[in-house]
């Protein structure tokens, strides 16, 4: 979730809680109100993003202002929010998109077990596919190869191409060089920002911890691998101790040209070699920060060639490799 979206999200959730429970302190809000406040906040924030952009696309707006207001709607973002009530030890997780929250907990044998607290909302999720087919019953080609008209996720903020009507998109394209219209665009919106919310009882005495990450991590590590990695990190680190942020300047980000793995496509063009998911043989514990530890191992761990190779590409190419 981008920092700007996160900042707005917190404000929206607090506002919704105040509306639903005006006479209660935040600590006394009932669980049902928390769920509703989070749901309302997600939908309200996305509605404001889309409505502001739509007004800019249709109204008498200066170009600079219009582009600034259209940009959040043209782009897209997933969101993952957790809310922990320390008195009841209840953890709520709200997910829109394919970010994922995973609980790590010791079992009776002292081994770490992974439990997903959210489901990836993609065209491969059977529940999401059923929901979309019910909402758009006559669109047989809407979902192909696990994608909704080419989009991997089924829920997101922004992404106007999957939400706006054809007429509105045509106006935005004509006036402000908007993106092309996806086809077949028959009955939008196809995406929603409404989150799926789960509630889980946390057991601190079992050393419970939660990993929250975007699909960039989960494309390279399974939930079980990520929990195992944090378990390894905990063996040598005290999680209560305050840890300084890592010095990213010390992480190597360049390789000699001959070290970068490439291959030839049939058409003769150079393509980046496919990097396999996390190899447990390369897992290392080399960071003071648990989050950095996870990222390092998702990008090659102790294999410096792969690690450096994945850190070398700059935006926008970097999005395709890490």
TrEMBL record:
Name the UniProt record assigns to this protein: PPM-type phosphatase domain-containing protein
Record-linked InterPro entries: PP2C, PPM-type-like_dom_sf, PPM-type_phosphatase-like_dom
Ranges for domain PPM-type phosphatase: 1-313
GO molecular function, a single term: [pyruvate dehydrogenase (acetyl-transferring)]-phosphatase activity
Organism: Lepraria neglecta
Record's GO cellular component terms: mitochondrion
